[in-house]
Automatic annotation (TrEMBL):
UniProt topology in membrane: Single-pass type II membrane protein
Main EC class the enzyme belongs to: transferase
Keyword Nucleus: no
Lineage of the organism: Eukaryota, Viridiplantae, Streptophyta, Embryophyta, Tracheophyta
Domain of life from the UniProt record: Eukaryota
Organism: Carnegiea gigantea
Gene Ontology CC entries for this record: Golgi apparatus
Keyword tRNA-binding in record: no
Signal peptide: none
Protein name, as recorded: Hexosyltransferase
Sequence similarity: Belongs to the glycosyltransferase 8 family.
Keywords: Glycoprotein, Glycosyltransferase, Membrane, Signal-anchor, Transferase, Transmembrane, Transmembrane helix
Record GO terms (molecular function): glycosyltransferase activity
């Protein structure tokens, strides 16, 4: 296991911001959604679905801090899917900070018919690689679990859509899942070539020719890692987890970026992904990483809303200071409030 180095280990406050295993939140039961007649028929038992190449595999992290957002995201995926019974959810949880039985019970109570499994993620495997960033929430070990999906999920799962917990899907997830990954590409995501790519790395990085030349042979564009389609077989074959870890190890020695888990993905994949229509990640609705100010939608159609940034819709609604777009998240909120009446 990699040992933390002086001056770069996560602070106690950073770990406290990662949530705990206890929660008093209660959630309502979601409606059950059924396949349309033209959906492929997959074996009813869980093992049949988990390995089926006709299923849609969705991976998310799951913890008590963001579980309210996760519940809304799951509901939105099911509600807008034409084949909701053919979706299998893969939930990655902290092996040390999460109670698997509690999370399984919470999922089962709100989604009795959901096909899912839980995958414990060893925090210590990555904690020694994490450098502090501009926002403590970005330093949680579970935030880095997306780099280990190929190791955590069953080998029979060859493709997965990874979603952050602060999204709402308003289109059929199968349309995203089925994107063509041509030319041996490993990853697909909306990319944004108008963004200032240089801002994601420090002057130390750009002033070092051996580092800045990393992007010399590719047109590197920003993409958000909260929504990705990943070919897990190609990821495994290319040992991409190790490639990401190597950049994280360098970061601990010479500080080449300020954000959390995003820059290593950019270093490995930027300029070498399959671009997806921007409608699949209307990101930044949580504002910037410092103040979380309100933002408007980007121009164009919307298939997925993403409250990336500091401001989360459930927190702003609870504080009675919502942004206008938080009203689009609220209908998917399954939180059972003390004053709600059961129908």
């Amino acid at each position: 296991m990699n040992q933390p180095q002086p001056g770069t280990v996560l602070s106690l406050s950073s770990f406290l911001s990662c949530g705990s295993a206890m929660s008093t939140q209660k959630f309502r039961e979601a409606p059950q959604y059924y396949n349309s007649p033209d959906c492929p028929v997959i074996t009813d038992d869980q093992d049949g679905l988990i390995c089926s190449d006709q299923a849609v595999h969705v991976a998310m992290t799951l913890d008590q801090t963001y579980i309210r957002g996760s519940m809304a995201a799951i509901l939105s995926v099911l509600q807008h899917s034409s084949c909701p019974q053919n979706i299998f959810f893969h939930f990655v949880i902290s092996s040390t900070r999460s109670n698997a039985s509690d999370l399984r019970a919470t999922m089962g109570a709100s989604f009795p018919y959901l096909k899912f499994d839980l995958y414990p993620f060893d925090d210590s495997a990555v904690a020694g690689l994490i450098s502090t960033s501009i926002r403590s929430a970005l330093d949680c070990p579970l935030n880095y679990a997306r780099s280990y999906l190929a190791n955590l999920l069953p080998l029979c799962v060859s493709r997965v859509v990874y979603l952050d917990s602060d999204v709402v899907v308003v289109d059929d997830i199968a349309s995203l899942y089925d994107v063509q990954l041509a030319e041996e590409k490993v990853l697909a995501a909306p990319e944004y070539c108008n963004a200032n790519f240089t801002a994601y790395f420090t002057p130390t990085f750009w002033s070092n020719p051996s580092l800045s030349m990393t992007f010399a042979e590719r047109r590197a564009c920003y993409f958000n890692t909260g929504v990705m389609v990943i070919d897990l077989n190609r990821w495994r074959a290319g040992d991409y987890t190790r490639r990401i870890e190597e950049w994280m190890e360098l970061q601990k020695r010479m500080r080449i970026y300020e954000l959390g888990s995003l820059p290593p993905f950019l270093l490995v994949f930027a300029g070498n992904i399959v671009p997806v229509d921007h409608r699949w990640n209307q990101h930044g609705l949580g504002g910037d990483n410092f103040r979380g100010l309100c933002r408007n939608l980007h121009p164009g159609p919307v298939s997925l809303l993403h409250w990336s940034g500091k401001g989360k819709p459930w927190a702003r609604l609870d504080a009675n200071r919502p942004c206008p777009l938080d009203a689009l998240w609220a209908p998917y909120d399954l939180l059972q409030t003390p004053f709600s009446l059961d129908s």
